[in-house]
Amino acid sequence: MGWNPFRRAPLLHVADDRGSGPVVVFIHGIASSSITWTNVVPLLEDRFRCISIDLLGFGGSPIPEHADYTLAEHVAAIARTVASLRLREPFVLVGHSMGGLIAPRYAARHPKQVRRLVLVSPPIYITPTALSMDRDRSVQQFYLRAYKWLRENPAFTIKNGGIIGDMLAIPRSMDINERTWVPFVKSLEHTIESQTTISDLAALRVPVEIVYGDLDEFSSPGGMRIAERIRGVTVTRVRGADHLIGKRLARAVARSVDEE
């Protein structure tokens, strides 16, 4: 049972706020933290105010006892945190991995606040039966079965957090552990597996750029093809990059943010 919808959403940890100029807000992925943006912020801080926020349950942000870590709860917490910053102009919103699924919902719910959306390595999944190609359905079913297995086997997942971290392309500094288990498993089920990314993208009226590597371990080809056909969405595929934001992917992300 999640928190009462009339209860105030928690404030999140603003892990980094540096630079000056137009604002860029960064949100990371599952079981990670704002360390995700280590290679990106230095490329932008001379021209932009770069604000990195830790998602609910991760990094330095609170872990509410009754949270279900739904898409709505993640968005509500981001909304309250952004409101506390008292930003005067619409900003660029950048999300990595699960953050790239939360960001479109935030932008759809708060259309006047976001002027551009950059989604980095978003695992855009839809119901396998809705995909036309057999290979696309097989890839989608594999991910969903793997995530379900991880959720249902906590002893294995926590014990082998380092290995799972490598499998899921999660930085070692934020391995799955006892502290982050509940946020991890509930975010996996209630945000990644229950995402609304395609419908959120279709509702947007701001430019959207999806940036991902051709070696991304968690990209769904079927979902990505559908996303890039949506009006206002462009896709940049980075050769030699995987799910994590290494230097090559970071440069592509910085170019997407800088693009007007």
UniProtKB/TrEMBL annotation:
Domain AB hydrolase-1: 22-137
GO CC annotations on file: membrane
This protein's record includes keyword Ribonucleoprotein: no
Pfam families, per the entry: Abhydrolase_1 (PF00561)
Keywords of this entry: Hydrolase
Entry annotated with the keyword Hydrolase: yes
Superkingdom of the organism of origin: Bacteria
Family annotation (Gene3D superfamilies): alpha/beta hydrolase (3.40.50.1820)
GO MF annotation: an example: hydrolase activity
Name of the protein in question: Alpha/beta hydrolase
Organism from which the protein derives: Protaetiibacter intestinalis
